[in-house]
Amino acid sequence: MTQLRFTHEPDASRYTLHKGDDLVSALDYRDDGRTLAMTRAYTVPTFRGHGYAGVLVEKAVAELEARGDRQIIPVCWYVADWFAAHPDRSGIMQRRSA
């Protein structure tokens, strides 16, 4: 089985997941120096239905938690749903002010 490879491409403002040489999924973001707005999770159609976007979001969140210098704004519906399914990871999300 081909291993999955997670990469961060800061110049392109995205995280990616590759299977072998193939791009499987991408997670685009906007970074303002304090927050990272995750704007789009995309999986290549031929790779959909295997949970790759979830793996990608999990790895990106883990990297940001380890860095500890950004909060996440889940703009993309998929990322928001991922956080809803993983409430134990919501500590890194930016809290809305009242």
Helix content: 25-40%
Structural class: alpha+beta
Largest sheet: 5 strands, mixed
Mean pLDDT: 95
**Compute the gyration radius: what is it?**
13 Å
The assembly state of the depicted protein chains is single chain
Instruction: Please list the strands of the largest sheet in the order they lie side by side.
Output: 1-2-3-4-5
How far is the N terminus from the C terminus? 49 Å
What is the topological layout?
Layout: E1 4-9, E2 14-19, E3 22-31, E4 35-43, H1 52-67, E5 71-74, H2 77-85
Parallel strand pairs: 4-5
Antiparallel strand pairs: 1-2, 2-3, 3-4
What is this structure, in a nutshell?
It contains two helices and five strands, in the order ββββαβα. By secondary structure, it is an alpha+beta fold.
Please provide a written account of the structure.
The protein has a 5-stranded mixed sheet. Strand 2 (14-19) and strand 3 (22-31) form a beta hairpin. The protein is built from 2 helices and 5 strands, in the order ββββαβα. The longest helix is centred in the middle third of the chain and has 16 residues, at 52-67. The chain is 26% helix and 36% strand. The chain is of the alpha+beta class and 98 residues long. The chain has helices at 52-67, 77-85; strands spanning 4-9, 14-19, 22-31, 35-43, 71-74.
